[in-house]
Design goal:
Helices cover 41% and strands 22% of the residues. The protein has 179 residues and is an alpha/beta fold. Strands 1, 2, 3, 4, 5, 6 and 7 form a 7-stranded mixed beta sheet that branches.
Length: 179
């Protein structure tokens, strides 16, 4: 996993542009997607720092320091995970009107559909007035039984490549000032 110095250790105004990836993963699927996206962003030959934070560790200060965002969540009961929802609840008003226009993308590891979880992230991002740089990337695991829903997930190479491409696109656009 690509990581950066904790938010309180990162010098403000260090000159390097950055992406904050905020995620939660119950069964490992979302984690695999995030790892691929972070690798893609880091390999984009762009001078962009990639900071990966679990949703329960990320805060408003992380959002304020980043130049762009990638939000990743499993689909839980046709919604974003409770941990990701808690992240948005804790940070929403603290950064409202302070991150307007910054780019973002979203990834959902879904058992069946994922569109409602993606819509929830889009609505929050709309409230923050963020700029979507791509449509939501949804990986469907087709987990439909209690056993499959709760079991460890394995994201295939084609889907991990899509995640890496999204990370690289976000990093390149931020580095070039396109987003």
């Amino acid at each position: 996993m690509v990581t950066a110095a904790p938010a309180d250790e990162r010098p403000i105004g260090a000159g390097m542009r950055s992406i904050l990836i905020v995620y939660h993963s119950d069964t490992g699927g979302t984690s695999q997607m995030v790892e691929a996206a972070a690798r893609g962003a880091a390999a984009a030959e762009a001078a962009v720092e990639v900071c990966v934070r679990h949703a329960d560790q990320a805060g408003a200060e992380d959002l304020l320091r980043a130049d762009g965002y990638l939000f990743a969540t499993p689909e839980n009961l046709a919604a974003i995970s409770g941990v990701v929802k808690c992240f948005f609840d804790r940070t929403y008003y603290a950064v409202l009107d302070r991150i307007v226009g910054r780019p973002y993308a979203a990834m959902v590891c879904a058992g069946s559909d994922g569109h409602n979880a993606a819509r929830q992230i889009e609505r929050i991002a709309t409230g923050w007035r963020l700029k979507a740089v791509a449509g939501p990337l949804i990986v469907c695991t087709s987990a439909q039984t209690p056993e499959r829903i709760l079991s460890a997930k394995r994201i295939g190479d084609p889907d991990r490549e899509r995640c890496a491409e999204l990370g690289a696109t976000l990093a390149s656009g931020i580095a070039l000032g396109i987003f």
